[in-house]
Amino acid sequence: MERLRLSPLSYLVLGVVAERESCTPYEMKRDIGRSIGPLWPHPHAQLYAEPARLARAGLLAVTVESGGRRRHRYRLTDQGRARLDAWLDDDAVADPELRDTALLKLMFLSPNTQGAERVRRLAVARAHEHRRRGAWFEQWCEAAAGEAPPGTAELHRLAGELERTAAAFWSALADRSGY
Predict the structure, then answer these.
(1) Which of 25, 28, 167, 168 could form a disulfide with 48 if both were Cys (CB 3.0 to 4.6 A apart)?
(2) Residues in CB range of 168: below 8 A, 6 or more apart
(3) Which of 27, 57, 89 is the last residue before a domain boundary?
(4) Residue 114: its pLDDT value, please?
(5) Residues 29 and 73 in one domain
(6) 105-159: per-residue pLDDT in tens?
(7) How many domains does the chain have?
(8) 2-37: b (≥16 Cβ within 10 Å) or e
(9) What Cα–Cα distance (Å) separates residue 100 from each residue in 7, 23, 117, 129, 166?
(10) Are 79 and 128 members of one domain?
(11) What is the Rg, in whole angstroms, of the alpha carbon atoms belonging to the chain?
């Protein structure tokens, strides 16, 4: 039998279920939105499809409410725990992705007479957005001090640093001569 391929989203689902012991896809979506969601966008519909796929593979067990909305509640199986633990123990990770459409636009803009103003406007807008996001992460860290899981707190601290660095890059680009 071929080994089931698991994606980063698969491990996200397994990890959230492991942390909560049991949860619905809606609860997963809410928890992810409060933790890694602002840093790692993904189609929310997948949070409903992926747990069902993992349950069919035996990595999650599912119970369905008998009445009302008939919510599906998932919990980790021993096989699911083993796969999650093996992934967490594996030091290999894929190269990071930086999918910012502003970078794609920048690739096609040049500092000629028409492009210089476009680059400046783009850079000013991106610097503003990165400062806003950096402030949001800082506020989150202050508000959640001592209450957030350590991994989530560190994740948000790193995100704040990355946003400050990106804001500095775009600000410098906006100020650069020729732009």
Answers:
(1) 25
(2) none
(3) 89
(4) 65
(5) yes
(6) 888 886 665 678 888 899 999 999 999 999 988 888 787 777 777 778 888 888 8
(7) 2
(8) eeeebeebbebbbbbbbebeebbbebbbebbeebbe
(9) 21, 32, 20, 12, 11
(10) no
(11) 21
Say if 55 falls within a structural domain: yes
What is the domain range of residue 49? 8-89
Joined together, the tokens standing for residue 130 give 């990165």
Q: Is residue 2 part of a domain?
A: no
Residue 114 lies in a domain: yes
Could you read off the pLDDT of 40-68 as tens digits, one per residue? 777 778 888 999 999 999 999 999 988 88
Using CA atoms, how far apart are residues 141 and 147, in angstroms rounded to an integer? 10
Q: What is the pLDDT of residues 7-27, one digit of tens each?
A: 989 999 999 999 888 999 999
pLDDT digits (tens, 9 = 90+) for 78-105: 999 999 999 999 988 888 877 788 988 8
- Answer yes or no: do 20 and 51 share one domain: yes
Q: Which residue's structure tokens are 């949001």?
A: 136
Residue 105 DSSP code: H
Torsion angle in degrees (nearest 10) through CA of 155, 159, 160, 165: 140
Residues 105 and 60 in one domain: no
Report if residue 140 sits inside a domain: yes
Q: In angstroms, what CA-CA distances link 59 with 13, 44, 54, 115, 130? A: 11, 20, 5, 52, 38
Residue 114 and residue 81 share a domain: no
Residues 42 and 57: their CA atoms lie apart, in Å, by 22
